[in-house]
Design goal:
The chain is an alpha+beta fold and 115 residues long. 22% of the residues lie in helices and 18% in strands. The N and C termini lie far apart (65 Å).
C-alpha cells in the first residue's frame, strides 16, 4: 500500500477535486477512496489538509426525490420546534441553548414573543 500523493496548496494537477469542488460540478465521489491530498502550511500548527478525489471516477449527484424532500423538510421543521414550549421558534434552535430564546431566558421582558 503506497502513500497518498501530497500537493502544495493551489498546486494540484487537473483531474483532482475536493468534495466541495465535485459538488459544485454536480458530482460526488461515488465510493472511490481519497486519491491525493493538499497541504497548506501554517506557522504555529500542523498543516491544513484537504482530500482530493479523481474527477474521472466521480459519479453524478443523485436527484432529489419527493420522499427525500419531505424527509428533509420534516427534519428542518423539527430543528425549529422548541422542546420546552412546543412552539415553532421561527428559526433553527441553537444546540447551545437547547430551547428557544424566550424559554432559555425567561427573565428578559424584551422577548419578541409575548404570551
Amino acid at each position: 500500500m503506497g502513500a497518498l500523493p501530497v500537493f502544495r496548496w493551489r498546486l494540484a494537477p487537473d483531474g483532482y477535486a475536493t468534495r466541495r469542488q465535485l459538488r459544485a460540478r454536480g458530482l460526488r465521489p461515488g465510493g472511490q477512496g481519497v486519491a491525493a491530498q493538499l497541504e497548506r502550511p501554517r506557522r504555529r500548527r500542523g498543516p491544513l489538509v484537504a482530500y482530493l478525489y479523481r474527477v474521472d471516477l466521480a459519479k453524478p449527484v443523485r436527484p432529489m426525490t419527493p420522499a427525500r424532500r419531505a424527509a428533509l423538510a420534516k427534519a428542518n421543521t423539527a430543528r425549529r420546534l422548541c422542546p420546552q414550549c412546543r412552539r415553532d421558534a421561527g428559526y433553527v434552535i441553537p444546540p447551545s441553548l437547547g430551547t428557544c430564546v424566550p424559554c432559555a431566558y425567561p427573565d428578559h421582558s424584551e422577548s419578541p414573543r409575548s404570551t
